[in-house]
Amino acid sequence: AILGTETSSKYEIKDHLGRRVYFAVEENGCFDRKLCSPLRAFTMRIADPAGREVIRVIRPLRCNSCCFPCFLQELEVQSPPGTIAGYVVQNWDPFLPKFTIQNESKEDVLKIIGPYATCGCFEDVDFEVKALNEMTTIGKISKYWSGFVNDVFTNTANFGIQVPVDLDVRIKAVMIGACFLIDLMFFENSLDGL
């Protein structure tokens, strides 16, 4: 903090009972973290408790503006590493955060639609997971409100992913990637929401 350097992010992924099932580490250069911050390219390596990498999330450097709809966010999820599980693709919309979850063949599977305002002051922020028709909600990715001090003065955040139990396991891995993308795009800089 004294030198103003940004370190690689580390995450714990827990099940609904609070048990750690995966540990994730972001890999990229100091240049990417400092100059490109929430837009930065990275490789996220997600390992099981035995340390075996089970999911890899790859995000190239892309734009993050409704004014530039030609080079929007996209990330690739591999599970196991080296085998594409699917993609998360940002969709252009002038008002709402929208994403498409695609399978390994780049066929659309699900949609994610966020709220107009994502600051989340004093409440949870929900991104709804919907069927392709965007009418039926089947789950959500939520950033949980963790209190004023935590949200403003720390980089810690708690997210939850709720999807149907019978959803394809590869698409569940892609949903983890979507959660990381949403975190970086909308909640990376805790003071930005105020």
From TrEMBL:
Q: What keywords are assigned to this protein?
A: Calcium, Lipoprotein, Palmitate
Q: Name one GO molecular function term.
A: phospholipid scramblase activity
Reply yes or no: does the keyword Calcium apply. yes
Known Pfam families for this protein?
Answer: Scramblase
Q: Which domain of life is it from?
A: Eukaryota
Which gene name does the record give? Plscr5
| Function as written in the Swiss-Prot or TrEMBL entry | May mediate accelerated ATP-independent bidirectional transbilayer migration of phospholipids upon binding calcium ions that results in a loss of phospholipid asymmetry in the plasma membrane.
Q: Which species does this protein come from?
A: Dicaeum eximium
Tell me which family the UniProt entry assigns to this protein: Belongs to the phospholipid scramblase family.
Query: Which prosthetic group or cofactor does it need?
Result: Ca(2+)
Would you tell me the protein name for this molecule? Phospholipid scramblase
A GO CC annotation given for this chain? plasma membrane
